[in-house]
Amino acid sequence: MVEDFPVVSANAFVSLVAVCDKDPDIELAAMSTALQERYPMHELVVTVRSEAPGPPRLPSLHVLSLAPPADDRVRLAAALDRCLGDIIVIVDPARDDPQAMLQAAALVGTGEEAVYEVPTRAEGGLRRWARHEPASRISRAVGVSAPPVAGVRACNREVLLGLLAHPDRDRLLAAFPAVTGHGWRALPTASASAEGRSPLRWRLAALLAGSAAPLRWASALGVIAAVMNLIYSAYVVVINVVQGTVEGWTSLSLQMAGMFLLLSIVLALIAEYVYQLVKRGRERPLYRVRTDATSPSLPSLERLNVEDPAGNPLA
Amino acid sequence: MSATQEVDVVIVGAGIYGVLGGIEAARMGKRVVMLEQDVRILGAASAINQARVHNGYHYPRSVTTAIRSRANYRRFVADFAEAVDRPTAFYAIARRQSKVTPAQFERFCGVVGLQLRPVDDPGHLVDLRHVAGIWQVDEAVFNADVLRGMLGHRLAQAGPELRLGTRAEAIEVVGDLAEVTTADGSAVRAPLVLNCTYGGLEGMRGAGAPRFLYELAEIAIVDVPPGFADVALTVMDGAFFSCIPHPASGGHSLSHVRFTPHVAGNASEFPWGSEHQPPASRFELMVRASAPLAPWVADVRHRESVWAIKAIPPKRDFDDARPIIVHRGVDSPVVSILGSKLDNVYDLQQWLKTSLS
Known about the structure:
- The complex is a heterodimer of chains A (315) and B (357).
- By secondary structure, chain A is α/β, with parallel strands linked by helices.
- Helices cover 47% and strands 17% of the residues of chain A.
- Chain A has 11 helices and 9 strands.
- Chain A has helices at 24-27, 29-38, 72-81, 98-109, 125-142, 157-164, 176-180, 193-197, 200-210, 213-243, 249-281; strands spanning 14-20, 42-48, 61-67, 87-91, 114-119, 151-156, 185-189, 288-294, 306-307.
- In chain A, strands 7-5-6-4-1-2-3-8 form an 8-stranded mixed β-sheet, sandwiched between helices.
- In chain A, 41% of the residues are buried.
- The mean pLDDT of chain A is 79.
- Chain B has 357 residues and is an alpha/beta fold.
- Chain B has 7 helices and 22 strands.
- Chain B starts with a strand and ends with a helix.
- Strand 9 (306-307) of chain A pairs parallel with strand 21 (324-328) of chain B, so a sheet runs across the interface.
């Protein structure tokens, strides 16, 4: 039973995007039914983890498999690359229900540029920081607001094109409306999907792809390390002059360990960015499509291109 | 003062929507009178356009429009074979600021059933620094003069009474009937009036047409450099351009999404009359904006510009659809029809068939 969310327009074209294990005909059956009822013009664009998906049977289903096997971010990016809709909804077939999908579509259809999911469950400490900080960092880096939330659920076509224009689109998935400068609205949800949609490593990847701020942190850490070394050197010279001997394995070891920690962090940050630059410089394709199949037809193929709101017979 | 004539259907406007609507109504046994202010049919927007017969490629952001264009294209090309030319047609997707990516366009064509063929020497046609993808496609153009002759012949055979040079000035609803008064003082009364005047929907008093914006559109007729006479190039999707053969003039039409529309306004402030001079041509701007994408466009030569008033459908929130919009008041015998693309006229015929039966 579908609840009474507003139908945006009979002509709104909804793209439902998902990553499925093997058989999207089964995994997305409920979503497909709900979409057919609400939005006659729709499509399901799916990348499967399986290497040999069966022929698609659901109406308007487009199924991809990639080679070599990629992670889910790349699979999702491959599906998003092919979306034709005006409203794009990302679902997790293992966790989401059709109601939440329709609600997100309705929000985008009524004017929201993007809809994030916000988990309603209380949380704190490191988890809360991990959930909030990357998006906040991105927002500060690019000068737009971003929600401290779990992941993008839906967006309009313009937002999607903003993402697809970015060479690191797979890595930006966790926070792309913030990076492209679009607005967003939070959709509170109690489902576990909010957590699963965008795990911590996705958000860290989005932070590194969408912002150069960590390189500035590396610069700051390098300067701090240099100043501390300078102070420590001066201390050693003073002690040597005043007392003749500098003593203490403990303090020396701590100093060395601390400096190496700082330098390692700096090197790790720089190495990550150099890695990304080299990777991009080699211009390898993000993915290769192994199989690509579409179900026989779109619904509404026979619908006339006539809008007649009255609809009753003429004289 | 002439006597008032009473018929089953009055059609105001003898563009392609009015003509084929009239033929369909006559086929159903209706007594039809058609009123056209021009001295010939297909004198305005039906003839003054790019002359493209849409196969669907143009609407990657509206699958419904594309599917119907695809379906109607085959029928139009078969129905009016003598009026149709088939140039070597190409569609390209701009690398920046396009509303569609090459991957989306390819998938869209697959969904709609449109053929895309790779291009052997794309650098000859477009600058690949600015164009992300280009394909050869199957899309025709029509000769408006030949089409006019064919439709005139069919109209004469089908039986509607056609009154050329007759301007409909006002519509008055009298009971269940609508009475159309013309500039020559005659009147026609019918239980159904179809207002198919496109750019002049609000030009008649009492028509009750919806309020649209109207714009004056310029199509530049140009001569292309040697070697491009058969080339039809369209760069999409957004503020881009097309340069395609224009059979009625023997040249090419050049239009640019940004520079083709000139003045825009509502019905009350828009210059309806033909006595108004068109503004200065924007041909140079069209060329300047198009040449970076297709350098050969810099060498086209301007012959003339043709101008048409176009009704702009209400802004749509979701897509780039170009539906046929039907507007009628409650229990009103007056129906305003804002036509869509030329070959979508078969959808109007089908709708009329269903609605009149």
